[in-house]
Amino acid sequence: MTKNTSNWGILGCGWIAEQFAEALNRTEGAVLYAAASRSQKKADEFAKKNKVSKAYGSYLSMIEDPEVDIVYIATPHSHHFANTKVCLEAGKHVLCEKAFTVNAAQLKELIGIAKSKKRFLMEALWSRFLPGMIKAKELISQGVIGEVITMDADFGMNFPLDPNHRLFNPYLAGGVLLDIGIYPLFLSLFMFDKPKVLKAHSLLDDNSIDHTTSMITQHSNGTICNLTGTTRTNRPVKATFYGSKGKLEFDNWWFTPVNFTVELEGQKKREYKFPPMVNGYEYEAIEAMRCLNEGLNESEIMPHSFSLLIMETMDEIRQQCGIVYPKELESIDKPYGLGEMY
Ligand SMILES: NC(=O)c1ccc[n+]([C@@H]2O[C@H](COP(=O)([O-])OP(=O)(O)OC[C@H]3O[C@@H](n4cnc5c(N)ncnc54)[C@H](OP(=O)(O)O)[C@@H]3O)[C@@H](O)[C@H]2O)c1
Q1: Ligand 1 center to residue 78 CA distance, Å?
Q2: Domains of the chain
Q3: Strands 148-156 and 54-56
Q4: What is this structure's pTM?
Q5: What is the whole-number distance in angstroms between the Cα of residue 219 and the centre of ligand 1?
Q6: What is the mean pLDDT of each run of 10 residues along the chain (342 residues)?
Q7: Is 12 touching ligand 1 by the criterion CB < 6 Å?
Q8: How far apart are CA 49 and CA 27, in angstroms?
Q9: Edge to edge, what strands does the sheet with 246-250 contain?
Protein backbone atom coordinates (compact mmCIF):
# COMPACT_ATOMS: atom_id res chain seq x y z
CA MET A 1 0.00 0.00 0.00
CA THR A 2 1.47 3.32 -0.99
CA LYS A 3 -1.19 5.80 0.13
CA ASN A 4 -0.97 7.28 3.61
CA THR A 5 -4.65 7.08 4.44
CA SER A 6 -6.64 3.97 5.23
CA ASN A 7 -10.27 3.42 4.33
CA TRP A 8 -11.88 1.71 7.30
CA GLY A 9 -15.00 -0.42 7.27
CA ILE A 10 -16.73 -1.17 10.56
CA LEU A 11 -18.45 -4.55 10.74
CA GLY A 12 -21.30 -4.61 13.29
CA CYS A 13 -22.86 -1.35 14.49
CA GLY A 14 -23.07 -1.90 18.25
CA TRP A 15 -21.65 -0.15 21.33
CA ILE A 16 -17.93 -0.49 20.72
CA ALA A 17 -18.36 0.38 17.04
CA GLU A 18 -19.57 3.85 18.10
CA GLN A 19 -16.53 4.44 20.31
CA PHE A 20 -14.17 3.31 17.59
CA ALA A 21 -15.95 5.44 14.99
CA GLU A 22 -15.38 8.51 17.16
CA ALA A 23 -11.67 7.67 17.39
CA LEU A 24 -11.37 7.16 13.63
CA ASN A 25 -13.16 10.40 12.86
CA ARG A 26 -10.64 12.34 14.91
CA THR A 27 -7.46 10.51 13.88
CA GLU A 28 -5.20 11.71 11.10
CA GLY A 29 -4.89 9.28 8.21
CA ALA A 30 -8.06 7.38 9.07
CA VAL A 31 -11.04 7.56 6.76
CA LEU A 32 -14.22 6.14 8.19
CA TYR A 33 -15.43 5.01 4.82
CA ALA A 34 -18.04 2.29 5.46
CA ALA A 35 -20.14 0.59 8.11
CA ALA A 36 -22.09 -2.65 7.81
CA SER A 37 -24.97 -3.95 9.85
CA ARG A 38 -27.33 -6.87 9.43
CA SER A 39 -30.00 -4.21 9.03
CA GLN A 40 -29.89 -1.46 6.40
CA LYS A 41 -31.85 0.86 8.70
CA LYS A 42 -29.35 0.42 11.52
CA ALA A 43 -26.42 0.91 9.12
CA ASP A 44 -28.00 4.10 7.77
CA GLU A 45 -28.56 5.48 11.28
CA PHE A 46 -25.03 4.58 12.34
CA ALA A 47 -23.58 6.16 9.19
CA LYS A 48 -25.53 9.38 9.68
CA LYS A 49 -24.60 9.71 13.33
CA ASN A 50 -20.92 8.85 12.82
CA LYS A 51 -20.27 10.55 9.47
CA VAL A 52 -19.66 7.36 7.50
CA SER A 53 -19.74 7.62 3.68
CA LYS A 54 -21.21 4.19 2.88
CA ALA A 55 -23.81 2.22 4.82
CA TYR A 56 -24.24 -1.45 4.02
CA GLY A 57 -27.21 -3.57 5.10
CA SER A 58 -25.17 -6.78 4.98
CA TYR A 59 -21.65 -7.61 6.09
CA LEU A 60 -20.78 -9.33 2.80
CA SER A 61 -21.66 -6.34 0.66
CA MET A 62 -19.19 -4.18 2.61
CA ILE A 63 -16.50 -6.86 2.47
CA GLU A 64 -16.92 -6.97 -1.32
CA ASP A 65 -16.36 -3.20 -1.67
CA PRO A 66 -12.85 -2.80 -3.16
CA GLU A 67 -12.49 0.66 -1.57
CA VAL A 68 -12.39 -0.82 1.95
CA ASP A 69 -8.76 -1.36 3.03
CA ILE A 70 -9.20 -2.59 6.57
CA VAL A 71 -12.17 -3.99 8.47
CA TYR A 72 -12.71 -3.46 12.20
CA ILE A 73 -14.68 -6.43 13.55
CA ALA A 74 -17.07 -5.27 16.29
CA THR A 75 -19.38 -8.29 16.62
CA PRO A 76 -19.81 -10.71 19.57
CA HIS A 77 -16.93 -13.13 20.34
CA SER A 78 -18.84 -16.02 18.80
CA HIS A 79 -18.65 -14.31 15.40
CA HIS A 80 -15.05 -13.09 15.32
CA PHE A 81 -13.63 -16.25 13.76
CA ALA A 82 -16.16 -16.45 10.92
CA ASN A 83 -16.23 -12.69 10.31
CA THR A 84 -12.44 -12.35 10.26
CA LYS A 85 -12.02 -15.42 8.06
CA VAL A 86 -14.36 -14.07 5.41
CA CYS A 87 -12.63 -10.68 5.43
CA LEU A 88 -9.13 -12.15 5.12
CA GLU A 89 -10.21 -14.49 2.35
CA ALA A 90 -11.68 -11.51 0.49
CA GLY A 91 -8.28 -9.78 0.75
CA LYS A 92 -9.08 -7.30 3.52
CA HIS A 93 -6.79 -6.37 6.38
CA VAL A 94 -8.42 -6.94 9.78
CA LEU A 95 -8.41 -5.39 13.22
CA CYS A 96 -10.60 -7.65 15.38
CA GLU A 97 -12.02 -6.86 18.82
CA LYS A 98 -11.05 -8.93 21.82
CA ALA A 99 -11.48 -11.77 22.63
CA PHE A 100 -9.89 -12.56 19.27
CA THR A 101 -11.67 -15.90 18.88
CA VAL A 102 -13.42 -18.48 21.04
CA ASN A 103 -10.30 -20.67 21.28
CA ALA A 104 -6.64 -20.81 20.27
CA ALA A 105 -7.24 -23.30 17.45
CA GLN A 106 -9.45 -20.76 15.68
CA LEU A 107 -6.83 -18.05 16.08
CA LYS A 108 -4.11 -20.31 14.66
CA GLU A 109 -6.32 -20.91 11.65
CA LEU A 110 -6.83 -17.15 11.14
CA ILE A 111 -3.11 -16.44 11.47
CA GLY A 112 -2.44 -19.10 8.81
CA ILE A 113 -4.95 -17.49 6.45
CA ALA A 114 -3.55 -13.99 7.07
CA LYS A 115 -0.04 -15.26 6.30
CA SER A 116 -1.04 -17.06 3.13
CA LYS A 117 -3.10 -14.10 1.90
CA LYS A 118 -0.42 -11.60 3.02
CA ARG A 119 -2.97 -9.53 4.94
CA PHE A 120 -2.57 -7.57 8.16
CA LEU A 121 -4.24 -9.11 11.21
CA MET A 122 -4.26 -7.72 14.76
CA GLU A 123 -6.31 -7.98 17.94
CA ALA A 124 -7.93 -4.76 19.15
CA LEU A 125 -7.00 -5.11 22.81
CA TRP A 126 -6.91 -1.36 23.29
CA SER A 127 -5.16 -1.31 26.68
CA ARG A 128 -1.99 -2.70 25.09
CA PHE A 129 -1.58 0.42 22.95
CA LEU A 130 -2.20 3.08 25.61
CA PRO A 131 0.85 5.28 26.30
CA GLY A 132 0.34 4.98 30.08
CA MET A 133 0.33 1.19 29.89
CA ILE A 134 3.56 1.24 27.87
CA LYS A 135 5.20 3.60 30.36
CA ALA A 136 4.13 1.47 33.34
CA LYS A 137 5.73 -1.58 31.74
CA GLU A 138 8.93 0.36 31.11
CA LEU A 139 9.15 1.42 34.76
CA ILE A 140 8.41 -2.06 36.06
CA SER A 141 10.98 -3.62 33.71
CA GLN A 142 13.56 -1.06 34.86
CA GLY A 143 13.01 -2.22 38.44
CA VAL A 144 11.75 1.16 39.64
CA ILE A 145 9.60 -0.50 42.36
CA GLY A 146 12.22 -3.22 42.88
CA GLU A 147 11.41 -6.90 42.61
CA VAL A 148 7.68 -7.21 41.92
CA ILE A 149 6.36 -9.60 44.55
CA THR A 150 2.62 -9.50 43.77
CA MET A 151 0.19 -7.82 41.42
CA ASP A 152 -3.56 -7.51 41.96
CA ALA A 153 -5.89 -6.66 39.07
CA ASP A 154 -9.67 -6.57 39.10
CA PHE A 155 -12.46 -5.87 36.69
CA GLY A 156 -15.83 -6.34 38.35
CA MET A 157 -19.18 -4.78 37.51
CA ASN A 158 -22.70 -5.69 38.47
CA PHE A 159 -24.22 -5.87 34.99
CA PRO A 160 -28.04 -6.05 34.79
CA LEU A 161 -28.93 -9.67 34.11
CA ASP A 162 -30.33 -9.92 30.59
CA PRO A 163 -30.29 -13.39 29.04
CA ASN A 164 -30.46 -11.85 25.56
CA HIS A 165 -27.37 -9.70 26.05
CA ARG A 166 -24.22 -11.16 24.55
CA LEU A 167 -22.53 -11.14 27.97
CA PHE A 168 -24.94 -13.78 29.32
CA ASN A 169 -25.61 -15.75 26.13
CA PRO A 170 -23.50 -18.89 25.60
CA TYR A 171 -24.34 -18.86 21.87
CA LEU A 172 -22.60 -15.48 21.63
CA ALA A 173 -19.62 -16.83 23.63
CA GLY A 174 -20.64 -14.76 26.63
CA GLY A 175 -19.33 -15.08 30.17
CA VAL A 176 -16.88 -13.00 32.09
CA LEU A 177 -13.54 -14.47 31.02
CA LEU A 178 -13.67 -13.68 27.31
CA ASP A 179 -15.30 -10.34 27.89
CA ILE A 180 -13.73 -8.56 30.87
CA GLY A 181 -11.67 -11.23 32.70
CA ILE A 182 -9.36 -10.99 29.69
CA TYR A 183 -8.16 -7.57 30.89
CA PRO A 184 -6.55 -8.59 34.21
CA LEU A 185 -5.19 -11.68 32.48
CA PHE A 186 -3.74 -9.48 29.73
CA LEU A 187 -2.03 -7.31 32.35
CA SER A 188 -0.19 -10.25 33.89
CA LEU A 189 0.84 -11.68 30.51
CA PHE A 190 1.91 -8.29 29.15
CA MET A 191 4.00 -7.38 32.18
CA PHE A 192 5.48 -10.80 32.95
CA ASP A 193 4.91 -13.10 29.94
CA LYS A 194 3.79 -16.75 30.00
CA PRO A 195 2.90 -17.99 33.51
CA LYS A 196 4.75 -21.02 34.88
CA VAL A 197 1.84 -21.60 37.28
CA LEU A 198 -1.84 -20.99 36.47
CA LYS A 199 -4.74 -21.77 38.77
CA ALA A 200 -8.28 -20.62 38.11
CA HIS A 201 -11.72 -21.08 39.53
CA SER A 202 -15.10 -19.83 38.28
CA LEU A 203 -18.62 -19.38 39.47
CA LEU A 204 -20.76 -20.65 36.61
CA ASP A 205 -24.32 -19.93 35.60
CA ASP A 206 -26.67 -22.86 34.87
CA ASN A 207 -25.68 -22.65 31.20
CA SER A 208 -21.99 -23.45 31.95
CA ILE A 209 -20.65 -19.99 31.27
CA ASP A 210 -18.88 -18.02 33.98
CA HIS A 211 -20.07 -14.90 35.76
CA THR A 212 -17.03 -14.75 38.04
CA THR A 213 -13.53 -16.04 37.43
CA SER A 214 -10.50 -15.72 39.68
CA MET A 215 -7.03 -16.57 38.47
CA ILE A 216 -3.66 -16.86 40.13
CA THR A 217 -0.59 -16.81 37.93
CA GLN A 218 3.08 -17.07 38.79
CA HIS A 219 5.69 -15.94 36.32
CA SER A 220 9.35 -16.79 35.66
CA ASN A 221 10.51 -13.70 37.61
CA GLY A 222 8.61 -15.05 40.64
CA THR A 223 5.74 -12.51 40.69
CA ILE A 224 2.37 -13.86 41.81
CA CYS A 225 -0.69 -12.19 40.21
CA ASN A 226 -4.17 -12.26 41.72
CA LEU A 227 -6.69 -11.58 38.97
CA THR A 228 -10.47 -11.39 39.15
CA GLY A 229 -13.28 -10.69 36.73
CA THR A 230 -16.96 -10.66 37.58
CA THR A 231 -20.22 -9.50 36.03
CA ARG A 232 -22.17 -10.05 39.28
CA THR A 233 -20.86 -7.45 41.71
CA ASN A 234 -19.18 -4.06 41.72
CA ARG A 235 -15.55 -4.33 42.74
CA PRO A 236 -13.06 -1.47 42.53
CA VAL A 237 -11.63 -1.74 39.02
CA LYS A 238 -8.05 -1.47 40.25
CA ALA A 239 -4.60 -2.77 39.44
CA THR A 240 -1.55 -2.47 41.70
CA PHE A 241 1.98 -3.82 41.49
CA TYR A 242 3.67 -4.35 44.87
CA GLY A 243 7.46 -4.38 44.76
CA SER A 244 10.34 -4.67 47.22
CA LYS A 245 10.95 -0.89 47.00
CA GLY A 246 7.38 0.41 46.69
CA LYS A 247 4.23 0.16 44.58
CA LEU A 248 2.89 1.21 41.21
CA GLU A 249 -0.85 1.80 41.35
CA PHE A 250 -3.13 2.46 38.38
CA ASP A 251 -6.06 4.83 38.84
CA ASN A 252 -9.48 3.16 38.84
CA TRP A 253 -10.53 1.82 35.43
CA TRP A 254 -6.92 0.91 34.92
CA PHE A 255 -7.40 -0.67 31.47
CA THR A 256 -8.71 2.59 29.96
CA PRO A 257 -6.44 5.57 29.15
CA VAL A 258 -4.06 4.96 31.97
CA ASN A 259 -2.87 7.22 34.75
CA PHE A 260 -0.86 5.80 37.62
CA THR A 261 1.25 6.65 40.63
CA VAL A 262 4.56 5.32 41.87
CA GLU A 263 5.13 5.40 45.61
CA LEU A 264 8.55 4.33 46.82
CA GLU A 265 9.18 3.56 50.49
CA GLY A 266 9.73 6.78 52.41
CA GLN A 267 9.25 9.01 49.34
CA LYS A 268 6.52 11.26 48.04
CA LYS A 269 4.06 9.68 45.60
CA ARG A 270 4.79 10.54 41.95
CA GLU A 271 1.93 10.91 39.48
CA TYR A 272 2.06 9.91 35.81
CA LYS A 273 -0.72 11.25 33.58
CA PHE A 274 -1.51 10.33 29.99
CA PRO A 275 -4.62 12.12 28.68
CA PRO A 276 -5.80 10.42 25.46
CA MET A 277 -5.85 12.24 22.12
CA VAL A 278 -9.47 11.13 21.59
CA ASN A 279 -11.00 8.36 23.70
CA GLY A 280 -8.17 5.80 23.81
CA TYR A 281 -9.30 3.71 20.83
CA GLU A 282 -7.19 5.83 18.48
CA TYR A 283 -3.94 4.15 19.53
CA GLU A 284 -4.83 0.71 18.15
CA ALA A 285 -6.05 2.35 14.92
CA ILE A 286 -2.82 4.33 14.61
CA GLU A 287 -0.76 1.17 15.09
CA ALA A 288 -2.81 -0.70 12.46
CA MET A 289 -2.35 2.16 9.97
CA ARG A 290 1.37 2.42 10.70
CA CYS A 291 1.69 -1.28 9.85
CA LEU A 292 -0.32 -0.88 6.64
CA ASN A 293 1.75 2.11 5.58
CA GLU A 294 4.97 0.20 6.25
CA GLY A 295 3.72 -2.92 4.48
CA LEU A 296 3.72 -5.01 7.67
CA ASN A 297 1.19 -7.81 8.06
CA GLU A 298 1.83 -8.19 11.77
CA SER A 299 2.43 -5.62 14.49
CA GLU A 300 5.51 -6.09 16.65
CA ILE A 301 3.62 -4.24 19.40
CA MET A 302 0.70 -6.69 19.38
CA PRO A 303 2.18 -9.73 17.60
CA HIS A 304 0.19 -12.84 16.75
CA SER A 305 2.25 -14.79 19.30
CA PHE A 306 0.99 -12.56 22.13
CA SER A 307 -2.66 -12.90 21.09
CA LEU A 308 -2.11 -16.66 20.86
CA LEU A 309 -0.64 -16.69 24.36
CA ILE A 310 -3.80 -14.97 25.61
CA MET A 311 -6.08 -17.43 23.81
CA GLU A 312 -4.07 -20.49 24.93
CA THR A 313 -4.10 -19.28 28.52
CA MET A 314 -7.85 -18.71 28.32
CA ASP A 315 -8.30 -22.23 26.88
CA GLU A 316 -6.46 -23.60 29.92
CA ILE A 317 -8.53 -21.46 32.31
CA ARG A 318 -11.77 -22.60 30.66
CA GLN A 319 -10.67 -26.20 31.05
CA GLN A 320 -9.80 -25.78 34.73
CA CYS A 321 -13.09 -23.95 35.39
CA GLY A 322 -15.47 -26.03 33.26
CA ILE A 323 -16.53 -23.10 31.08
CA VAL A 324 -18.22 -24.70 28.07
CA TYR A 325 -19.65 -23.16 24.89
CA PRO A 326 -21.94 -24.84 22.36
CA LYS A 327 -19.81 -27.20 20.25
CA GLU A 328 -20.37 -25.39 16.96
CA LEU A 329 -18.81 -22.20 18.36
CA GLU A 330 -15.50 -24.00 18.91
CA SER A 331 -15.31 -25.33 15.35
CA ILE A 332 -12.73 -24.47 12.72
CA ASP A 333 -13.89 -27.07 10.22
CA LYS A 334 -17.42 -25.84 9.75
CA PRO A 335 -17.38 -22.08 10.06
CA TYR A 336 -20.97 -20.99 9.86
CA GLY A 337 -20.86 -18.34 7.14
CA LEU A 338 -20.72 -14.99 8.85
CA GLY A 339 -22.13 -16.39 12.08
CA GLU A 340 -25.66 -15.46 11.13
CA MET A 341 -27.22 -18.68 12.47
CA TYR A 342 -27.35 -17.17 15.97
N1 LIG B 1 -12.29 -2.52 23.76
C2 LIG B 1 -13.31 -2.24 24.54
O3 LIG B 1 -13.26 -1.35 25.37
C4 LIG B 1 -14.58 -3.01 24.39
C5 LIG B 1 -15.73 -2.58 25.04
C6 LIG B 1 -16.94 -3.26 24.80
C7 LIG B 1 -16.93 -4.37 23.96
N8 LIG B 1 -15.78 -4.78 23.35
C9 LIG B 1 -15.78 -5.92 22.43
O10 LIG B 1 -16.44 -5.52 21.25
C11 LIG B 1 -17.21 -6.60 20.72
C12 LIG B 1 -18.66 -6.15 20.60
O13 LIG B 1 -19.12 -5.72 21.85
P14 LIG B 1 -20.28 -4.61 22.01
O15 LIG B 1 -20.35 -4.31 23.45
O16 LIG B 1 -20.10 -3.54 21.05
O17 LIG B 1 -21.55 -5.50 21.64
P18 LIG B 1 -22.94 -5.00 21.05
O19 LIG B 1 -23.26 -3.62 21.46
O20 LIG B 1 -23.89 -6.10 21.36
O21 LIG B 1 -22.67 -4.98 19.48
C22 LIG B 1 -22.31 -6.13 18.77
C23 LIG B 1 -22.82 -5.99 17.35
O24 LIG B 1 -22.54 -7.22 16.67
C25 LIG B 1 -23.50 -7.44 15.67
N26 LIG B 1 -24.01 -8.81 15.71
C27 LIG B 1 -23.86 -9.74 14.72
N28 LIG B 1 -24.47 -10.87 15.02
C29 LIG B 1 -25.04 -10.69 16.21
C30 LIG B 1 -25.85 -11.51 17.04
N31 LIG B 1 -26.18 -12.75 16.68
N32 LIG B 1 -26.27 -11.00 18.20
C33 LIG B 1 -25.92 -9.75 18.58
N34 LIG B 1 -25.18 -8.91 17.83
C35 LIG B 1 -24.75 -9.39 16.65
C36 LIG B 1 -24.61 -6.42 15.89
O37 LIG B 1 -24.44 -5.42 14.90
P38 LIG B 1 -25.49 -5.23 13.70
O39 LIG B 1 -26.84 -5.43 14.32
O40 LIG B 1 -25.21 -3.85 13.29
O41 LIG B 1 -25.18 -6.26 12.68
C42 LIG B 1 -24.33 -5.83 17.24
O43 LIG B 1 -24.73 -4.49 17.33
C44 LIG B 1 -16.96 -7.77 21.65
O45 LIG B 1 -15.90 -8.50 21.13
C46 LIG B 1 -16.53 -7.13 22.97
O47 LIG B 1 -15.70 -7.93 23.77
C48 LIG B 1 -14.63 -4.10 23.55
Answers
A1: 10
A2: 6-126 (3.40.50.720), 131-272 (3.30.360.10)
A3: unpaired
A4: 0.97
A5: 33
A6: 81 98 98 97 98 96 97 97 95 98 98 98 98 98 98 97 92 96 98 97 95 98 98 96 98 93 97 97 98 98 98 98 93 70 46
A7: yes
A8: 17
A9: 197-204, 210-218, 224-230, 148-156, 239-243, 246-250, 260-264, 270-272
